[in-house]
Amino acid sequence: MNRKFPTVDADGHLEEVHVNWKERLPQRYQAMAPERRPAGNGQSRLFIEGKAWPKPSGPGLGVGGPYSRPHPRREGMQDPKARLVDMDSEGVDVAVLFGGSFAGTIPALEDAALAIELARARNTWVAEYCAQNPSRLKGTAVLPQQDIPASVTELRRAVTRSRPLPPWAPGLPSPPCESRSRGSAPLGSSGERLLSLVTGPMVDRLARAAEKPD
After folding, report:
1. Which of 23, 42, 52, 151 gives 20 to 30 Å between its CA and that of 205?
2. 167 touches 200 (CB < 8 A)
3. What is the pLDDT, as a whole number, of residue 155?
4. Is residue 99 a contact partner of residue 16, using CB atoms and an 8 Å limit?
5. Count of CB atoms situated within 10 Å of the CB of 110
6. C-alpha distances in angstroms, 137 versus 72, 162, 166, 211?
7. Rg (Cα) of the chain, in Å, rounded?
């Protein structure tokens, strides 16, 4: 394909609910693993902490609207090989990948310890997905925002691995729970230093590309 510049899908999405999260969690959390269950309205729904996510109806965090029809899914949301086929057919060089309802739910869980383990397991799965073609598949890590020190630890693990995952922090307020006493300040200087490991080189590459003559 003869193009002057690469094409980036800056808002790709993954579907994580098909993963067997029980086998990816420490034994003490396996009974709390997310799972799909019938919701009583002809739809299946993700259950975490004994609650349906998104909420089936009514006001409040996580409401996903009426589910009168299935939401369209692409095989590539679960299978990186299928995504690469779609990307080739659409002329997309690089895809930046965010999570689905599962990843967006993690920062809103009431159990901070469960959120920490789920974030770690989910980010590991995303790294495995992107390993199919790291130069084209760019995943993002979700952070357990209920516990700021734990978020910094997971951020450090995500961005310093051999194939770094920059963080994705959904705009969800952390629920009131005991874990908030562990630290409620922003990620702060530690987070900024870690982010620079990923964003710094990225900005440098973009700047160099912009300086190249046509």
Report:
1. 151
2. no
3. 86
4. yes
5. 16
6. 21, 14, 12, 25
7. 18
For residue 147, with 0-12 CB atoms within 10 Å meaning exposed, 13-18 middle and 19 or more buried, which class applies?
A: buried
pLDDT means over runs of 10, the chain (214 residues)? 78 89 93 81 76 64 49 84 95 91 85 94 93 92 89 86 65 37 46 47 42 49
Please tell me the predicted confidence (pLDDT) of residue 21: 93
Domain extents for the chain? 8-211
Task: Determine the pLDDT at residue 59.
Answer: 56
Q: Hey, which CATH number is domain 8-211, 3.90.180.10, 3.20.20.140, 3.50.50.60, 1.10.3210.10?
A: 3.20.20.140
Amino acid at 153: T
**Among 166, 14, 13, 3, CA closest to 92:** 3
Q: How far apart (Å, rounded) are the C-alpha atoms in residues 85 and 92?
A: 10
Please state the pTM of the whole predicted model.
0.74
At 56 the pLDDT is 58
Owner of token pair 């951020």: 155
CA distance 148 to 137: 28
> Which tokens in the block code for residue 213?
């003559």
- The full DSSP string for 9-67 is EEEEE---TTS-GGGGS-GGGGGG--EEEE-SSS-EEEEETTEEES-SSSSSTT-----
